[in-house]
Amino acid sequence: MKNKLKIINAFVLSAVVTILFIVAMTMLAEIRPIIKDWLKITFSHHWTGKGILAVGLFLALSLLISFLPQETKEGAVRKNLFLLFLVSVAGTLVILGLYILETFRFI
Amino acid sequence: MDWKTFLTVFHVIGTALGVGGATFAEFFYLKSVRDGAVDPMEDGVLKITFYVLRIGMIFLVLSGFGFLLFYRLTGQEASLYNPKFLAKLTIILILFLGAIFWQAKKVPLWLGGAGSLTSWYAALILGVWRGLEASYLNIMLFYFLAVLFIAFLLGILRKLAGIKP
Amino acid sequence: MSLLLRYNLIGHVVLGLLGVIVFYAAWLALLKQNFSLKFLRFLSGAGLTFFLLSLLSGGYYYVQHYGNVVKPIIKAGRYPWAHSVIMETKEHVFLFLPFLAAVVFLVFWLLGERIGEEPKLKRPLVFLVGLIAVLGIAILMAGITISGAAR
After folding, report:
1. Do residues C73 and C151 lie in contact, with contact meaning Cβ atoms separated by under 8 Å?
2. N- to C-terminal Cα distance for chain B?
């Protein structure tokens, strides 16, 4: 059971960080075109680059966190699942807001 | 059989199962609670009715999106912004989200039943009524008024049948 | 549009739709007091698979065709915001779904037996599964909006 909690917690936390990464990369790529260009050059398309980096980050972090020595309590898994929910909602709203502001020339 | 006919057949089957399922579910439920309780036999019938209704929903959604793809791939993209189609899509969304609130017991009985019945019949009527010329807002306003009217009618039916709230 | 691109577009829509249907069904099932863990495990696995396949087929269509052919049509048309707001949001938010689906899948498989016994563990799952279904529906609606503007 302890191992299962640890593995799940690792994947949940990785998902939180990955979603934050996707949001951050999206914003940075719009605000700093050099980042979008780097993604295009390295991965042939900026969206493909964001996807591949996100998957790599998710898997690497999940493995890393699963091997950390600390014990995981069930309460922590519950809290992190809620955190994942909140981060996903916030991330969606931030991305939507970014493109609305950009389209209607507020930024 | 061409793709449009194939999609139409499945869409009609989905609508028939959904409309029929919703209608029978409402009347079976009214009959079941007349004596104050739902016995195992009545519960079994209701379960099958809801199961058929959900199959209808799946057929409807799959064939509906099939139509969207068909319009997209045959240069009829303008159909996707048709007010009647957008109203039908909104009503189906209300139906789907309503089912969730119903399952979570966040919807009162008078609204859940009326909402489901009205939504299914509205989707049917909007699908069949070819010459309807109305704006999205007009259709939605009429839909919401219809939900309230059906809720009122079902309330009268419950009273006549002696069903306590 | 070539046949390969056509099949990728159809695959993207159908697989994404199946993923949404499956997570919607999981949301409904999870809200019951007595749910079938076997059913939830099957649904979450199927949903994750559908989303991954939809991502791959949609990604191919997007990279090979949408950017060069469809995007200029939308931007030059009556509804340019269909690309600059709706499509841009959709292409990034869609990236969230496989990660969310993977987490839900793992929870059902590794902690499934505890969900029924502990309401405190069930609650965040109801929220997450619901979020996947709602985001999926929003993405489907976004797809309709974008397709309708491509004329």
Report:
1. yes
2. 50
Pick B68's closest partner by Cβ from C1, C144, C150: C144
Closest by Cβ to B61, choosing from C17, C141, C150: C17
CB atoms under 10 Å from CB of B133, counted, come to 8
Q: Which chains touch B (3 or more CB pairs under 8 A)?
A: C
The C-alpha angle with vertex B70 and arms to B68 and B75, in degrees rounded to 5, equals: 100
The dihedral through the CA atoms of C54, C83, B59, B90 has a sign that is positive
ipTM of this predicted structure: 0.93
CB neighbour burial string for C57-82, b if at least 16 within 10 angstroms, e if fewer: bbbbbbbebbeeebbeebeeeebebb
Question: What pLDDT, in 10s, does the model give residues C7-66?
Answer: 999 999 999 999 999 999 999 999 988 889 999 999 999 999 999 999 999 999 999 999
pLDDT in tens, C88-145: 999 999 999 999 999 999 999 998 888 888 888 899 999 999 999 999 999 999 999 9
